[in-house]
Amino acid sequence: MTTSAALMWFRRDLRAIDNTALFQALQAHSRVVCVFVLDHLILAPLPDDDRRLAFIHAALQELDHSLQQHGGGLHAVQGNPAVEIPRLAQQFACDAVYCNRDYEPYARARDAQVAARLAAQGIAFQPCKDQVIFECDELLTGQGRPYTVFTPYMKAWRQRFSPALTQPRPAPLAGALALPPAQLRLPALADIGFANATVADLRLPTGRSGAQQLLQDFGDRLSHYKATRDFPAIKGVSYLSAHLRFGTLSIREAIALALQEESEGATCWLNELIWREFYQQLLWHFPHVASDSFKEQYRGLVFPGKEEWYAAWCQGRTGYPIVDAAMRQLNHSGYMHNRLRMIAASFLVKDLLIDWRRGEAYFAAKLLDFDLAANNGGWQWAASTGCDAQPYFRIFNPVSQSEKFDPEGKFIRRYVPELASLDDKAIHAPWLAKSLPAGFELGRDYPAPIVEHAEQRELALALFGRK
Predict the structure, then answer these.
(1) Distances (CA, A) of 277 to 16, 19, 286, 443
(2) CB neighbours (10 Å) of residue 312?
(3) ∠ at Cα 231 (435, 332), nearest 5°?
(4) Whole-number pLDDT of residue 387
(5) Regarding beta strands 94-100 and 2-10, do their DSSP bridges make them parallel or antiparallel, or are they unpaired?
(6) Which residues are catalytic?
(7) Which class does domain 131-166+208-285 fall in?
(8) Helix axes 356-366, 338-346, angle to 10 degrees
(9) Phi-psi region of 285 (alpha: psi -120 to 50; beta: other; left: phi over 0)
C-alpha cells in the first residue's frame, strides 16, 4: 500500500462488501474517496416516479451508512460523469480512479471519455472485473471467436470455472475512507426530481441487507427452483434480479449459493446465471444488437402490426388473459415473472406482428431490474432475431401457455380481477367458453381477443419465412 489517494467510483455495484474495485483501491492506496455520480444523461428522460431511482437511492443510503461506520461516507454529485469524475479526482488529489467494468455501449463510451480526461491529468484509470465471472475475450471458441450459441458457451464456462473464482473480495475499510463534506452528501429523492419514486408496490427489500435477506430465503427454496420457476402464481423464483442488476448482491455470492448443494434446482439456477453472462459477452462483442437484430436477414424486416394493438398490449387489454395479467403486473409493480416475459414478448412479435424493439423499449422503461444485455437478449430470443438457435417457427400459444403454467388461473385472477368469477377452464380463453357467469359479458367486462392466434401465427410464419 502506498500513501497515495484513490477515487472509488460506484456504478452498478452498490455494496461495500465483496466489491472488486473497492478491494483493489484499498489494497493499493492509504486513502479512498468513495463517489457516486447521479448521471443527468441517464436521469433526465425518466419520469419522476421511476421505481429504479427509489431502489437505487435506498441502496445508496445503506452503502453510505456502511461507509460511515468505518469513518468515511459516500460522496454524491449530479452531472456528467465524464466531467465530474476527473474533476473530483483532481479535487481530492487522487492518483487513480477505480471502478468495476460495465459492458453496455453507453458505459463503454463514457468510460473511454473519463479515461482520456484522467490521462490528460496524469491520473490512472483502473477498471476491474466484478459483475461477471468471465468477461470480454476470456471465453472464446477454438477459433478465437465469441460464442453465439448458448449451449457451447455454457459448456466452455463450466469447463473453465473454478470455485476459487467465487472467493469474496474482503475490503479492510477501517481508517482508509474519506469523509465527504456536507455539500457532497447524498441528496433526497425529491431534491433530484424523483419525489414520487417508490418501490412500495413491489414490496421488495432494498439495499445490501435486502439482497442478503432474499438470498437466504431463496437458499431455502433452491432445490425446488427448477420445478417451480415457471409458475407465476407460486413463490418459485429468486427475486434477486434487481439486486444483481444494481450490484447490491455480487455474482460470486449468487454462484456460491448454487454450489452449496447438488440438486436440479441448483444446477438450473447456475445455468440462469451463465445465461446472464452469455448475454453480457454478446453485447460486448456485438454492440449493434442494442439497436438492431443480430441476424442480418431480419434487420430490414417490416412489421405490419397495428398501433392500436400495441396500445392494447401495453395496457393489458388484448383479450388474452395471461398476456394481460403479465402486462398489468409489470405496469403495477415494475416486475414481470420470467415465463411471462417470454409469453408477452412472443405475443407482441409473433401474434401482433409488432417490432420487437418497441416491446424491448417498453420493458426497459418499466422494469425495475432492467438490464440492457438481458432485456435485449430475451427479446431477440423471443423474436427469433437473436444469435441463439431460436427458430422463427417456434411461436408460443398464449392459451396453452396459460393452461400449463397458471392451471387454476390464480395469477390471472390476481391481476385481471374482472375474470375472477370464471371457472378454471374458461379463464384461459373466455371467448371459447361454452357458458360464462351470469352478468358477465365478453367485450363489455373484458375485451374480446384483438387478434386470432391461429391466423396471426400463419402471418408470422410467412413474414419471417420470407427472409
Answers:
(1) 23, 18, 14, 44
(2) 21
(3) 80
(4) 85
(5) parallel
(6) 272, 275, 309, 338, 356, 379
(7) mainly alpha
(8) 150
(9) alpha
Other residues' Cβ atoms within 10 Å of the Cβ of residue 93: 12
| Residue 192 in grid coordinates | 433530484
Q: CATH 1.25.40.80 residue ranges in the chain? A: 131-166+208-285
Residue 418 is placed in which grid cell? 374482472
| β-bridge partners, 36 | 10, 76
- What is the reported pTM? 0.95
Q: In what order do the strands lie in the sheet with 2-10?
A: 74-79, 29-39, 2-10, 94-100, 124-128
Residue 21 contacts residue 131 (beta carbons within 8 Å): no
Do residues 29 and 4 make contact, with C-beta atoms less than 8 angstroms apart? yes
The type of residue at 206 is T
Confidence of residue 466 (pLDDT cuts 50, 70, 90): low
Q: Contact at 8 Å (CB) between 22 and 32?
A: yes
Counting Cβ atoms within 10 Å, is residue 36 exposed (0-12), middle (13-18) or buried (19+)? buried
Domain 296-465 coded CATH 1.10.579.10? yes
Residue ranges matching CATH 3.40.50.620 in the chain = 2-129
Q: Residue 19's closest CA among 243, 213, 170, 174?
A: 170
Q: The C-alpha cell of 249 is what?
A: 448482491
Cell 430470443 appears where?
381
pLDDT in tens, 17-44: 999 999 999 999 999 999 999 999 999 9
The class (CATH top level) of 2-129 is: alpha beta
Residues spanned by CATH 1.10.579.10 within the chain? 296-465
